[in-house]
Structures are given as structure tokens and as C-alpha cells.
Amino acid sequence: MTYDPASANPLAGNPLQKRGDMQSALLDLFDPLLPYFSTGNARVRLDAAAAHFDRAAADLEGFARPLWGLAPFAAGGGDFGHWDRYAEGIANGTDPQHPEFWGQVNGRDQRMVELAALGFALALVPEKLWDPLSRRARENLVAYLLHARTFDYADNNWKFFRIFVDIALDRLGIDHDRSLTRSYLAELDGFYIADGWYRDGNVRRVDHYIAFAMHFYGLIYARLVDDDHAKRYRERAISFAQDFRHWFAEDGATLPFGRSLTYRFACAGFWSALAFADLEALPWGEIKGLCLRHLRWWADKPIAHRDGVLSIGYGYPNLLMSESYNSAGSPYWAFKAFLPLATGENHPFWTSTEAPLQQSTEPLDLRHAGMVMMPVNGDVVALSSGQENRQMRFGSEKYAKFAYSARYAFSIESDERGFVGGAFDSMLAFSDDGIHYRVREANEEVLIAGDVLFSKWSPWPDVLVETWLIPSSPWHVRVHRITTPRPLETAEGGFAIDRRDFDADTLFAAEGTAHAIGAEDFSGIRDLGSTVPREGIIQKAPPNTNLIAARTLVPQLRTSIPSGETVLGCAVIAFRNNPALAEAWPSPPVMPDIEKLVAIRAEGLNVSTMLAPGRIP
């Protein structure tokens, strides 16, 4: 019998349409963790893979993260049979004399992250986690929390973590220095840009953390605390919802972009938090549809190991795409999607009829994210410029590609010396030796003019690239003006699609064009009249580089450019297989006039300024 990896997914077969379906999904996802609880129940170690932090912190991560879903499940009346394990685990984990002690926080520490889940659960269901504790266990827990909160938290969404501990201390009647709470609330406000958008810290970075962290925590705060901050969090979430819905495709997939994508359906956390906060930022049927369609999208993906434990990865187990802070327990941030379980069955989130995605039919600029969103036959594509993350592994691939797709995700490169074999999907790569390569990592300037994005960037200090990204659905157009003092080899890729066994795919490559037809998808790229000829190829990308498909094909255009100025232009397209379209592509757009593109720059808004540290009105 052939093993089907998707069958190990605890969501498989669940219709995920009703409250009971979501309750079952939560328990089905949690149950595979039970064999991995330690004897004293304070630690959950799922495998031997390491993160940059110590094993004790990783074990705490495995223990604490399910609480993001278990606590609202219990608050909504759900019957979870293992609260005794959690109460015992808290008692032992915070006891310095116990062999399963979590270890003390003595500086910026991963434990700070996981204590936010514990603070949330203590605030929401103290009868499950506080009331059962002995006096000594309570004293140890309080001492542990008070000690941890005296240290400085990272200058980003982490500041909410101390606030969640403080909310728990307030609800348990524990005295603490509330000035620390007020200072962090003020500092979090400093990350706000406008129109519902934040930065996650003092960086040019706008990713899923804005939804499943900044807004997620703000909406929980808005339910648990009644003050001016709560009012502002609600107002900002309403604004953000109008834009964030455009990150989702018709089938429930969301835009894979940025870091921490191993958290998977945490990407529905914003919609779930709206239900938790009882905030109708969109009609309830739309919120419900966005949340549940996203969960259903994950139900047939091979995202778990054979024992049902969620893997590190995105569409399949994949350590290559992970961050240094991902341990085996990290994926359980996905339990943030289960916040609606705190609401009763009569809440309008549950009683409303799911509404289909309200997707724009025209390109939509999301200037605070430095993106232009394009609906394409049910998919959603984001043309992107303005963000960067040079501190993180594969930061260029996660933040600096020209385009991101909900259906085709993106690929990471597996060998910095592999110019010949690189995927380079939605990227322009340069090489001066045929071995190593450079791609866009950061931008010197970014402008958005209507639905056109412009960026200026340098793969080397002496090489200048000016790039224009232009929507022309179902295509998008890229134009690059390159100034270089020496000849360079270049490779530019379209979207990666799933590759079949037995070389059953249809591949075509010639001068100025390349396309691949797989089992379910078509992907193509066409030159639009570059100043040098480009040769089309179909790249059989290295395995396990794409986030959704483990084996992929990428149509590319390759050429050598001389010293001086070169203009490269292409049109890129990808869509679900349609025999008529595969036989005759939709007519590609024409090459834009470079001088007209240069003129557009004068009308552009500076994206870099918008992503810079802001002020609250």
C-alpha cells in the first residue's frame, strides 16, 4: 500500500464548516502531541532538530503554543481532558528545584515569547490553570512571571508578550509595576504607520506578523481590557481588514510572504481574532469565509509527520525554508486560528452564511506594504518592492522578489554557488563569474505611482538596476534598466509550478520565450524586446526549494549583458491549466516606453518613507 503523506494531516477529511468541525480540528491536531509530554508534563519535545535557543526553551515552546487554541476552546465550553497535565506542567516548569524547570529568563529570551501564551491562558481560563495549583506552585509561577517581565523585550511585536503577562497578573490580583505596561503600549503605538498598517519594529518590514501578531494581540487586548488603547486597536483592525482580505485567494490560500510561514494557518489568526473581539470589521459572512476557507486549504496538504505532529515547513516538511528560531514546537502558533471557539454557537461568526471572497477585479495598490495586488483567475499575485530583511536566512527570497503568488508561493535558493541551476523565480539574478550570483536584497529608492512600482537597487556597489513592475492581468510586466562597468550574466525567472514524474510535463523554450505545462498549471515568460536577445530555458529547480511544491519547473530568460546600459523587459504569466489558454496564450502586453516609465517616477510616492518609523496622529 502506498503511503499518502496528506493522510497524516489531522485536518484531512474535516469539512471545517461549523463550530463543531473547528472544535474537532483543534483536538485532532493536539492529540498527536500527547506521547511527547515529559514525565512531569512541563516539557514537550517533538524531535531532535534545534533552534538557536536552548532545549529547555524549545520544550516550553512545544508545551505552551497549543494554549493559543486550547484556552479559547475551554472558554467557549469545550471539553478538553488534559488540563491536569497543563496545571502540573506549569507547577513543575516554574519550580527551580524540579528537574523539568524551564530555566530562568536572564535577558532577551525565547521564554518571553511562550509566556505570552501562558499569560493569555491564565487570563482567559484561570479555573483550568491557576485554581488547581497549590500555594507553593502559585508562588513559584508568580515569581517566574515577575522576574521575566523585568527584562527588555525585543523592539517589535514582542512588547505585547509582557503586556499579556501583565493582563494575567491583573486578573489574578497580583501586584506589579504597571508603568512597564504603559510604556510598552506607547512604544507599540510608535510602530503604527496608517490605515491599519504597522511595521513589526523599527524596520522596513510588513509581513504576516502585522496580521497574526500586531493586530492579533491588539484584538485580544481589546476584548480583555477596556481603555483607549483597546478602542484604537479596534479602529485600526477595521481599516486593516479592508486591505488584508486582498492577500487571500478564492480557494482560501493566502500570500506566502516573509518569515515564519511554518506557522501556517496562523495566517487566519486575524479573522479569528475579529470573532474573539466581537468586531465586525467586514460582514460576518466574509470574515467566516476568509477564516474557514483558509483552514480548508490546509486540510489536504502533507503538513504533518506520520504521527500527525505538524512539521517545520509550509506545504510539506522542509527545514531548508525555516528560520533559526524554528524548533519542532514552532508550528503550533497555528493554533491562533482557533480563537473563534471562545464564542458561543449563537455568535454571528457561526450563524452567518459563508460569503465568497470579495476580490477586486482591478489592480489594487497597498502602498503601506509596498505592493500592488493583482487578481489572476482566482489566484492573487502581489507585485512587491520596498521591503527588506538582510538579517535573516533567505531574506531576499522572502521579502525582495518581484512577485509573490498565493498559488505558486516562492522558492528559496539552496546553493549560493549555483548560478547555472538556480530557481530565481520572480527574480533577476546576476553573475560575474558564472558560479556565484547576486539578486535584489534591498532598495536604494522605492516609489509607487498608481499601480506601478519603481525600485532602484544595486547587486554590487558599481552596478545600478532600475526596475519597474506593472500589472497587466493575467500578465505582469517587468522592465529593468541596468548600468554596469563590466559584462554580466543574467537569469530572470517566472513562477515555479509543480513538476510531474516521468518527465510528463510539456516544456518549450526558444529565443525570447519559455513555458511549462504541468499536471495542473501553466507558467510562462516572454521577452518584450530587450536591447539584447535572451534565450528561454525551463529550469528544473533543485528539490525542496519551493514552499508548496517539492519539485518544480521555472521558465527563465537568460543572457549576457555588456558593459554600459542595457534594458531588459519581459511579461510573466501563470494560471491553472486551461487547454484553450495553453494552446494560445493570452496576448502579452507590449514593451513599455522606457522614457514614459521614467516620467512616471515623478508622480510616485516614497514607499521607503511610509515604512519608516511613524508618529501617532
From TrEMBL:
<feature type="domain" description="DUF2264">
    <location>
        <begin position="19"/>
        <end position="356"/>
    </location>
</feature>
<keyword id="KW-0614">Plasmid</keyword>
<protein>
    <recommendedName>
        <fullName>DUF2264 domain-containing protein</fullName>
    </recommendedName>
</protein>
<dbReference type="InterPro" id="IPR016624">
    <property type="entry name" value="UCP014753"/>
</dbReference>
<dbReference type="InterPro" id="IPR049237">
    <property type="entry name" value="DUF2264_C"/>
</dbReference>
<dbReference type="InterPro" id="IPR049349">
    <property type="entry name" value="DUF2264_N"/>
</dbReference>
<dbReference type="Pfam" id="PF10022">
    <property type="entry name" value="DUF2264"/>
</dbReference>
<dbReference type="Pfam" id="PF20938">
    <property type="entry name" value="DUF2264_C"/>
</dbReference>
<feature type="domain" description="DUF2264">
    <location>
        <begin position="365"/>
        <end position="593"/>
    </location>
</feature>
